[in-house]
Amino acid sequence: ASLALACPANQNIVSIEYASYGTPAGTYPNFVSTWCDAPDSATQAAAICVGHNACTLDANSGVFTDACPGVAKRLSVIAECVDADLVGSSALDGASATIQCPQGEYIGSIPFASYGTPTGEFPDYAADPTCDAAGAVATIGDRCIGENACSVDVHSGTFGDDPCPGATKKLDVTAKCVPNNIIGTSVAQDSSASLQCPAGTYISAIDFASFGTATGIFPDFSVDPTCHAADSNLVVGSSCLGKNSCTVAATADTFTAGPCAGSTKSLSIVAECISNDIIGTSVPQGAVLHLSCPAGKTVQSIDFASFGNPTGHVGSFATGSCDDPSSVAIVQQACLGQDSCSVPANNVFTDNCYGVQKHLTVQATCATPPPDPQIIGGSVPEHGTLELSCPAGQAIDAVLYASYGLSGGAFPRFVNDWCTSPYSEPVVEFLCLGQTSCSVPAESAAFSNPCVDTDKTLSVTAHCKDAAPVIVTPPNPDPTIISATATDGNTLSLQCPNNFVVGPVLFASYGTSAVQSGVNTVSWCHAPLSGPAVQDACTGQNACSIDVSPQAPYFGQDPCLGVEKHLTVQVQCVDPDLIGGVAADGSSLDLACPAGDVVGEILFASYGNPTGDASLFQKGWCDSMYSTNVVSSLCLHQASCSIPVNTGYDFLDLVSCSDAFSW
Question: From the record, what ranges are coiled-coil (predicted)?
Fold first, then answer.
């Protein structure tokens, strides 16, 4: 068996307080070791678990020493968890204490430091008041705060005084690590608080601000409700947000009067920094949102966009309960490839929570544009073909604008006129997204005819980015897999080889499907009843034909009015001697061989949650080991049989019929 240990969120296992692999007695937290106890229990558990939020220990002699062979053993463990951002160090006189934060973090504060004869183990150090050098926290803080790592020589000269001459002393330290993008300070009243982000970043959020008598140390300040200026966040935000550095005067004139006039106050602040290349803002409904990249850079991606009630700030925006799912696409059209852009928070978006005050919130990433343009596009008249091609190594990742009909403006800033096909963007996206180049025919057969007897134009603006390598799937050489395509007004015909019959339908789409990377792909225009229509017409047949027409009742409603469509089908042909089926719990599965044949072999049987179709069944994670035996006892050598399905999941069966013979 295995023992799983898990700390609360944001904590890690810091030590193994108790561990015994053997025959420990008692219950948590009062375990007691007995005569049978692996001596390496604690060391092995610590090696696997310390430093992790959670771990799993296998209770077997492959991990721990077997202290009592032949005796049933168990594993009992007690571990201590500590805040994941705390690190500790302990060193004796004459040595050095090293404090090391994880990569990307720095030492933000020193919650504990004692040079003398402190007691306890990390993180539960405690000072001995009879031997404790004054100012140890300040001394360590001066040397270490702001550093990713630091070392402190442990001797009385470092701390200015020997707190207990002649005694063996040591230094115990607990430090708090803070991510590099978190900054803060705490200063006394009538001084100034200065914030400084790393180069190339700016202050994106004020996580905490209090002019009053806040408690705690950076970054874990807490508001004292009896003494706190209510406008602390507002004042600090107005002075600092969007800047690389700022200074705020910690004076009563700067903040509104609090409820503790006459008290000595301080100003405590925690802020977040973010890269200058990540920009974002939020505006109320009816306003216009403006984005502007640093000089020489353009918008390369829209990382977040929501028209509704999003929450958070730059770097941590989140969608709320009300959101227009097309927000990202709309902002992409306005901003990708631009050094600055403006997006109105109005009816260009869908109102999904009428009557609720909404905001438009956007976050984007700016970057230096490559020498080759990433915005491609153009216009061609009706009956022409628009060729789109990205620079080498790039592929189309977004269609910023597409209109088949009438459009105004010029590339890349086209605007819609009164006539445009509603299928414009879906058609172009289907043909071009993910492709390094594509050809788009300016034909009503592809887009429908939005304005009859009017000369139309196809106008497109698209965006390219670095392309991921594409793995092309080769055509399936299996002769039992056959495919066919027929356009509207024609007949699709399928013919299996030899005496095989149509089995599983691998692909069927009536619409505008295409082959992409060697694979049939359903497009935006697809009749959901395509598969059932082919199954009804062809399954079990050696050959079959289907008339292709938008009026054919078996396809259901026309998936895209006015657009030329086709039916593409791929099926698996199977041996006609194979019979099988699926039956649900509480029913029965009836099998019958053709006249003159009996069941000769059970090829597949699964009572559980198998998947697939006849000839392609596969067992799922739930499967009865007796399935084949049960089916064999009921069906072998029978012309037909009925298999009751009693409990559990679907029952699938695949058997082979052979010529009848006598016994």
Answer: none
